[in-house]
Amino acid sequence: MNRLDALLAWYGTLEERSLARIGEFYHPQARFDDPFNSVVGLDGIGRVFAHMFRATETPRFTIAEHLADADRAFVTWDFDFGIDGRRYRVHGVTRLRFDAGGLVTEHRDYWDAAGELWVKLPLIGGPVRWLRRRFRAT
User: Fold this and answer.
1) Which member of 11, 91, 96, 103 has the lowest number of beta carbons within 10 Å of its beta carbon?
2) How far apart are CA 58 and CA 54, in angstroms?
3) Which pairing describes strands 104-110 and 38-40: parallel, antiparallel, or unpaired?
4) pTM, full prediction
């Protein structure tokens, strides 16, 4: 199993207790960015995922497809989770860069926070839907 396959298998079975394995996949000074976080290092990345387990119910990543070459990969995924008993799904893409040893040095998640999450939330969904209609081309 190559390093990307091993990383994706880890994500597919990610649990809070498996966060201790982050160092098997990420460089000690890896950079991680998503719409809410920008951190550097294993401790920072670990905090992002630990927060995910505290803030959501039964979070789960499902890998859809991936493309890779020697030092980078693009991965499409679905993130399923609950908040206050209601289930959500976010579709996204991750861009990964690897060092010569196969460890992730850069992890950048791309997903539409407004369209995939905010629009579905009870309190802010209405204003977000209004904004989307306002700026939608006719």
Assistant:
1) 91
2) 10
3) unpaired
4) 0.84
Nearest CA to 50 among 63, 59, 38? Answer: 59
Q: Taking the C-alpha atoms of 118, 76, 61 and 2 in order, what is their torsion angle to the nearest 10 degrees?
A: -150
Neighbours of 81 (CB within 10 A): 19
CB 9 within 8 A of CB 1: yes
1-37 confidence digits (pLDDT tens) = 599 999 999 999 999 999 999 999 999 999 999 988 9
The values of phi and psi at residue 27, to 5°, are -65, 145
Domains of the chain: 3-111 (3.10.450.50)
